[in-house]
Amino acid sequence: MHRRHHAVPLMQAAEQSPALARLTGLARDSGERLRQVQELIPPGLRGTVRAGPIEGVTWCLLVDSNAAAAKLRQLVPALMAHLRTKGWAVEAIRLKVLGRGR
User: Fold this and answer.
1) DSSP-derived secondary structure letter, 64
2) Fewer Cβ neighbours under 10 Å: the N or C end of the chain?
3) The domain spanning residue 39 has which CATH number?
4) Which InterPro entries does the UniProt record give (predicted)?
């Protein structure tokens, strides 16, 4: 018996797998959170920040450098307050510096 393997589009696979559907939903949610707070991030820093993972009530932002993370750290209380006004239960924002080559 010969089995043929068919390629499945990513979105279809995500919809059919509860684990992938959850991860896809979290990725979408993280991206939407970043879109909501973009206006609070200075224009010069916006390109250095990416949406990261969500772990319960903690959201992680991925930052390109230590300098950008230091500046962003000062904005964390305002970012959290803004997200709460939009309905997200965010109790902490973690910053992860990616470093070079990523």
Assistant:
1) S
2) N
3) 3.30.300.180
4) DciA-like
